[in-house]
Amino acid sequence: MIMRREILPLSIFLAFAVLPLLGNFGSDAFILSIVTRVMIFAIAAVSLDLILGYGALVSFGHAAFLGIGAYAVGILSAHGIREAAIQIPAALIVSALFALLTGAISLRTKGIYFIMITLAFGQMAYFFAVSLAAYGGDDGMTLPGRSLFFGYDIAQSERAFYFLVFACLIAVYAACRMIVTSRFGRVIRGARENPQRMEAIGFSLFAYQLTIYVIAGTLCGLAGFLLANQTQFVSPAYMTWQRSGELIVMVLLGGLGSLNGAILGAAAFLLLEEGLSHFTEYWKLYFGPFLVLVVLFARGGLMGGFKRLTGTGDGR
Amino acid sequence: MSLTLLYVQTLNGLQLGVLLFLIAAGLTLVFGVMDFVNLAHGVQYMIGAYLAAMFTALTGNFFFGLALALPSALLFGLLLEFFIFRHLYARDHLDQVLATFGIILTLNQAVKVIWGAAPLSVPIPEIFSGSVVLMPGLLYPVWRLVIIASGLAIALLLGILVTKTRIGMLVRAGATNAPMVSALGVDIGRLFMIVFGFGAMLAGFAGAMVAPILSVEPGMGDNLLILTFVVIVIGGIGSIRGAFIAALMVGLVDTLGRSFGPSILRAFLDPAAAAQTGRALAPMLIYILMAAVLFFRPAGLFPAKK
Amino acid sequence: MTVPMLELRHIRKNFGALNVTDDVSLTIPRHELHAMIGPNGAGKTTLIHQISGLLPSNSGTLLLNGEDITALDLPQRARKGIVRSFQITSILPHFSTLENVALAVQARSGSSFRFFGRADREAVLNDAALAALTEVGLQDRANLRAGLLSHGEKRQLELAIALAAQPSVLLLDEPLAGTGPEESAVLTDLLRRLKGRLTIVLIEHDMEAVFSLADRISVLVYGKIIATDTPQAIRDNPEVRTAYLGEETA
Fold this sequence. Notes:
The complex is a heterotrimer of chains A (316), B (306) and C (250). Chain B is an all-alpha fold and 306 residues long. Chain B has helices at 2-34, 41-59, 62-83, 93-115, 142-164, 166-176, 178-183, 188-210, 220-235, 240-265, 271-281, 285-296, and strands spanning 131-135, 138-141. Helices cover 38% and strands 24% of the residues of chain C. The radius of gyration of chain C is 18 Å and the shape is globular. The model of chain C has no long low-confidence stretch (mean pLDDT 91). Chains in contact: A-B, A-C.
């Protein structure tokens, strides 16, 4: 049973590991760059899965953290600080503070109100970025290059950057896996199933939920750091509410509360987007109805299908 | 001079507020009565605008266009309800978010395919074109006044409908306690359909009315949708009265904040810093307002549910 | 003089004009099994909600072991030792039976802000959980998903969860509700074994169980306590007979 559960994540990571080694990517960096993008969004989706899937808190403002991480790179670079050892802590700390502040207010509300207030905070971050005239305002800004790692320009090579992102994904995945099975994670999972029961045995859930919200936001800030580095461009478009919606779509498409699903969902979403847009300019015309059909007829997303195929249990 | 500007901007804020109310009125009931998260309400507004543009072009008259657009918007809303939404009422919020997000993607793209990506424009009806002098030195476009007046009229009508008629009472009861209403033997499915169709038509009406002053383009409902959410949450989900007050609040705060924020800040900061901070702060004002309201009243100003 | 375990002073809850519980005062000494009876709608469950902190009271004071706990909420009171069961079974259906109980142990054993190490492999938690399961006779079901238990077993599980939370006061809201005769006998037996070890407030409609278990009984009618006394005295109290027992036993 235990082995069976580990087959899926192992094969996902194996696929990511061998991909750059296959074939001749020297000429075709295109695929490498798409898969890098997939892994970056997988980090964001995994972090969102912590609150959406495990915490059962429907946050509609998660893209704000993507933007905060990206702007940490952009703003520091604009002032000549290109050192990742400074940029990454800045990205994480600002993300954590934003999560702490907005989470403390949002978590006072429930249900539709929670969805709406997280959406509003996301919009606040978006408009704040738009107003940053010194950093490109609406148009965003182009970075002078990728971040330096202890002074070395190692991320400039697409392949090196690929493996950097890969390492981040593994680290984030492992951290999240550990969190959800820990004492803390068990409280979060229990609250998802029956909050009243959890309170009746003495857990004050607000503190736990705020903590998971901050963790998720911080990890997504890391994804933002990577995204800015990949595109070497930072703009408010990273934190539109549509982007938050897309992150939710990724998690749901893959299947909630399994972490593996979030990675698969990010891959499915971005590859579908890429694939469909090759055939038609109007790819959303096909993708939109696809989403509706997934909701109506294929509950549990890709992980649901995987579980039905292999007969594995809850995916925890 | 500055006072004239204040009047003009207040009227603009009022006009935005009325517009928001028209969209929010239906949506707050959909949220409240059905506990249904409908992100696709903004596209109803867009569809209304497109239908008005199309029928106006076909008939050559805005009012004929409006008369045709309204039932079409209603029909479109009912079709969406019949084929998709009614299968989602019993689902959790997340499923509803995903499906209605899919609908937004589809319809934003579909209008592009049908009517093209370029914005359409609709002429202001002849008799309401031009401006009128409201006060010495205060010139205001007639059509905007028409929008304000028709919005206020509809708000009044809705108020009467909700408080004085049987169906209105059922809707109010539904927002407070839906299981109770269905226990009373009311066909809750029919009630939902009526509320939904009506909401779709109101949003469509809003879209049609602003078609002559805004450009009709794909995705035009997206940002307005978010403002509508802010209105609904501030007003309290399920409350028409709350939606009305919150809509005017949001419309005024947003409009006045953008035009006067920098000059007010100038009292505290040097001009350059004031302009900078003002520009940054103004678009965030309504979200700050919303966060503040929810901080003190987590269920909005006029919560329908007890 | 000894401090009572639980003391209610003029507790009241109203929904609008309706007083669901009305000026309830009650003193429960340590280790007493105190039963609460009364017709449906008398306010028994509301009173349990108020004692456990699920519903805030409109007025009145609540003392636990002499300490004023009126201002505390549900989880805070649980940590002080007031643990409750629910009228409608409340468990975590997708967790194993053992984990349901282990979570309650976890709540009382060290911090739960631990992010490392698998919680389901902590021997300290699992051993205590298994002990509680054994106490209620569910040890064979430890690894079964809780949602798959029979109704009676779920009631037993809920008791095990409550016991694992190390209560000083146990509030039981109709623990026998919906159980068959055999399950009911098992649970009654269990309550008898708990009697004298804990302070227990019991709401139950099964009069046979109530009169055989309780040290004292309070009769609640329309939100007011009309009598508090030993089972025998309650049985003989004419006011109680007309107000309550008369209707039910007739």
